[in-house]
Amino acid sequence: MDRFIIISGCSGGGKSTLLEELRRRGYATVEEPGRRIVAEELANGGRALPWVDLAAFAWRAIEVSLADIHAAKQLDGPVFFDRGLLDATAALEQVYGERSKLGLPRFNRNVFLTPPWPEIYVNDSERRHDMKAAVEEYDRLLSFYPSLDYETVLLPKVSVEERVDFVQSYLGLKPRQS
Predict the structure, then answer these.
(1) 28/47 Cα distance (integer angstroms)
(2) Which of 37, 74, 91, 139 gives a 20 to 30 Å CA spacing to 132?
(3) Bridge partners of 95?
(4) What is the Cα Rg of the chain in Å?
(5) For 31, left (φ over 0), alpha (ψ -120 to 50), or beta?
(6) Residues in Cβ contact with 47 at an 8 Å cutoff, skipping those fewer than 6 apart
């Protein structure tokens, strides 16, 4: 699944904005499972929330991510994922203190990480943790991905248009506009 590309990194670092610009330029994108799960759980009074039951949240994110991967196989060209399966697996590792034995599919070996960017970080109903927790999460991901033999590529703190240009150039994709 070399055409499946993960955008991960620090919460509030601009991942969703980057994915929206990629989508606007005509690329297939997959929304972050975590945000979808949090919205659903809040609407239904559920407990699979990262601040209530991180394990239940991570298992639910794995379930949603696997469905996303299955659906994405029907799409043509590169597909950009806002977090997803591997981030959920990293959360399980945090909960249980050991690596999950799940058989994980491979993605493009380049994983783009948004670094901590306090100037754009904001909390909302779905992101309740503070910047300190976001940086701790980022630090875990920064070591987690290489442990699975992925190359982490730090995204520059530039405009969203420049970030997309960077990703396209890094992957050798021809620029496109929708």
Answers:
(1) 31
(2) 37
(3) none
(4) 15
(5) beta
(6) 41, 53, 56
Supply the pTM of this predicted model. 0.87
Q: What's the length of the chain? A: 178
Find residue 79's DSSP bridge partners.
4, 28
Least Cα distance to 140 among 107, 169, 113, 165 occurs for 113
Please name the amino acid found at residue 64. Answer: V
Rounded Cα–Cα distance for residues 127 and 119 (Å): 16
- How far apart CA 152 and CA 44 sit, in angstroms, is 36
User: Would you state the structure tokens that stand for residue 10, as one six-digit string?
Assistant: 């620090």
HSE, CB side, 13 Å, CA atoms: give it for residue 118.
5
- With contact defined as beta carbons under 8 Å apart, do 84 and 6 qualify? yes
Domains within the chain, CATH numbers bracketed: 4-171 (3.40.50.300)
β-pairing, 79-82 vs 110-114, is unpaired
Are residues 6 and 102 in contact, defined by beta-carbon separation less than 8 angstroms?
Answer: no
Tokens 């783009």 map to which residue? Answer: 112
How is residue 48 written in tokens? 């699979």
Contact 165, 175 (CB under 8 A): yes
Question: In this predicted model, what pLDDT tens digit does every residue of 77-102 receive, in sequence order?
Answer: 999 999 889 988 888 888 877 777 67
- For residues 33 and 84, is the Cβ–Cβ distance under 8 A? yes
